[in-house]
Design a protein that fits this description.
heterodimer, A: mainly alpha, 2% strand, B: 316 residues, mainly alpha
């Protein structure tokens, strides 16, 4: 009786998860083995045809490459920058409160607000970025329509947007660095960058690890900045996995739900693998106090 | 607005005494070992490396804050200044507030504000409710196979919402809910992460105290609402703020399930300011500033709770 009452407390949450997490999880797999008509209605079992098509689709190969490059060029610089800023702030700079608050400002921006602001900055004719380049004698640049530059521009927006959050995590980690360890290292003659590199940095490994994993998963799920800034273009140069799923399933009444679901399964697998790796590494490679 | 709250240990008494002990210890050590003394002195005066750090930090600060600065200043600039080439970074031909009016005219901004507040509010309240109930059962009630059920709650964090948009869209479309608040909010009424955090907080409540409260005649629910929830306020605030900000910032999902401008959230409506026919950077920036203002205010005043909620997963 009491056990049944206890279960009732779980029920609201379980219902939501069953309807909008677990059932769609299964249904994504099922849809990925279904063909569909032009309106998206399922038109019968096609087995692994969609997956076979993925393997031979050079456009999808490009999607995976873009996804990988985008993940690396956003996650690595964001963590490196926030570490650098965090360590410099930690080394007893004046007005630390002011600096920290100011660096946290981008955290207030959503993906939509950040992307809309940067789309104005990136504008070819009147954007402030080209306007600033002219100060140092550089001609206007096609930030969002140049095939090579476009992904970098989306990455710059993403790095800026995520910097505040990464810095908050690093600051929290620095706050939990035991003062006695640092003091002992100082007495042993470790100062400045040596102290930072060989004592404080290893103590931050849980935070760096956390940011790498969550940042990677987050980057793999990027959508808004691409949708607002480039719409996946030029010529697929900024089409990542999620944007590709969106395009196949929803853009311009595509309704290729089957093919898009196969891509969603790829996304699920990638995230699952990263999560498993995370748990595998967690115990061994990271220094926890 | 300061982030220093992050590093303050929770218990000021013991923290203070341990710092004193450390200070004493280091003084004793210094007396015994005279050599590192110059280092300790150098710490007080900013050395060369501190100056370099400060200069690098100021340079980075200018870069990081420039978009915010230009957004604010651009929202009151007149068109002539905004399209000037080379750029002007300060209004040359006076300021005007007409950009804000234009933004209000271009999209139903107030209505969309309301949509965002309603849907983010529903999601926040529902997430708190479902997580509190589940966490309470996990910690205090005689649940069968608690680890399994908790695992089912936690594992939802591993399912990226982007991977299940197609079936979720189909479910809501089949139910005829496209372009409704329900469609925006329904998939997000429960949260694995929030349940985890609230469970952690409940676990720190002594079972004996709960039993004592029960003996005094407080029923299960009465104990939950009159004793447990009031003392769990900081965690609830952290989860609530985190839920609200995540819901307020959502992009892909509301984009998929809304059609009419009247049902769109501000995040989606905002992008409609960027019409290719009549490009108006001042109006776009004014509109963006209006949309970003609430989160900026929450960031400034609720930072303590946000930091707590956000960093909870990163510190063991």
């Amino acid at each position: 009786m009491a056990q049944r009452t206890a279960f009732l407390y779980l029920l609201p949450g379980l219902l939501i998860f069953a309807l909008f997490a677990y059932w769609p999880l299964i249904r994504t797999f099922v849809l990925s083995t279904q063909g569909n008509d032009i309106f998206g209605a399922p038109s019968g079992f096609v087995g692994f045809d969609h997956y076979a098509k993925l393997l031979n689709d050079s456009a999808f190969g490009q999607v995976l490459v873009v996804t990988a490059i985008f993940t690396v060029i956003t996650v690595v610089p964001t963590i490196a920058l926030s570490l650098g800023i965090g360590l410099m702030l930690h080394a007893r700079v004046r007005a630390i409160r002011f600096f920290r608050s100011a660096f946290a400002l981008p955290f207030a921006f959503s993906v939509a607000t950040a992307s809309v602001v940067f789309s104005v900055f990136f504008d070819y004719g009147s954007g402030v970025l080209n306007g600033l380049l002219s100060f140092i004698g550089i001609d206007r640049v096609n930030w969002l329509t140049d095939p090579v530059l476009a992904l970098t521009s989306v990455a710059i927006t993403t790095i800026w947007m995520n910097l505040g959050y990464n810095l908050l995590i690093i600051a929290a980690g620095l706050g939990s660095v035991p003062e006695d360890v640092v003091e002992a290292a100082r007495l042993d003659g470790a100062t400045g960058w040596k102290l930072q590199r060989s004592i404080i940095l290893p103590l931050l490994s849980p935070q760096i690890f956390f940011l790498t994993i969550t940042g990677t998963i987050h980057a793999l799920q990027s959508f808004g900045q691409i949708h607002i800034l480039t719409k996946g273009g030029p010529d697929g140069a900024t089409t990542n996995l999620v944007y590709s799923i969106f395009k196949q399933a929803f853009a311009a009444n595509n309704s290729n739900f089957g093919y898009a679901s196969a891509q969603a399964v790829v996304l699920l697998l990638i995230v699952a693998i990263i999560t498993v790796v995370q748990f595998g590494l967690l115990e061994r490679k990271v220094f926890y106090k | 607005m300061s982030l220093t709250t992050v590093e303050k240990p929770s218990d000021p008494d013991t923290a203070g005494s341990s710092v004193q002990v450390q200070a004493q210890q280091s003084q004793q050590l210094k007396r015994r070992v005279p050599k590192p003394a110059p280092n300790a002195q150098k710490k007080r005066k900013p050395g060369l490396s501190a100056w370099i750090s400060t200069i690098v930090l100021i340079a980075l600060l200018v870069i990081v804050c420039f978009p915010v600065y230009y957004l604010v200043i651009g929202s009151v600039m007149k068109p002539a200044d905004l399209v000037a080439y080379p750029s002007v970074l300060w209004p040359q031909s006076g300021i005007s507030l007409s950009n804000f009016g234009d933004a209000f005219n271009a999209i139903p901004l107030l209505r969309q504000y309301g949509n965002s507040i309603v849907t983010a509010g529903i999601i926040t309240i529902a997430q708190l409710l479902t997580s509190v109930l589940a966490a309470y059962a996990f910690v205090f009630l005689p649940l069968k196979r608690p680890r399994l059920w908790f695992g089912i709650f936690l594992a939802t964090m591993m399912i990226p919402a982007e991977a299940t948009i197609i079936p979720n869209y189909l479910t809501l479309a089949d139910a005829g809910l496209i372009d409704t608040y329900a469609a925006i909010a329904l998939p997000f009424l429960a949260t694995g992460f929030g349940t985890f955090l609230i469970r952690q907080s409940f676990l720190s409540f002594p079972l004996e105290l709960r039993d004592a409260a029960m003996m005094d005649g407080a029923g299960s629910l009465r104990f939950l609402f009159t004793i447990l929830l009031p003392i769990s306020k900081p965690t609830l605030a952290a989860v609530g703020l985190y839920s609200f900000m995540s819901a307020w910032n959502m992009y892909l999902w509301p984009l998929l399930v809304t059609r009419s401008p009247e049902m769109q959230t501000v995040q989606i409506g905002l992008t409609q300011l960027k019409s290719p026919e009549a490009y108006d950077p001042g109006m776009i920036m004014a509109g963006t500033l209006l949309v970003v203002a609430p989160t900026l205010i929450i960031l400034i005043f609720g930072q303590k709770y946000i930091v707590k909620g956000l960093t909870a997963g990163s510190i063991k």
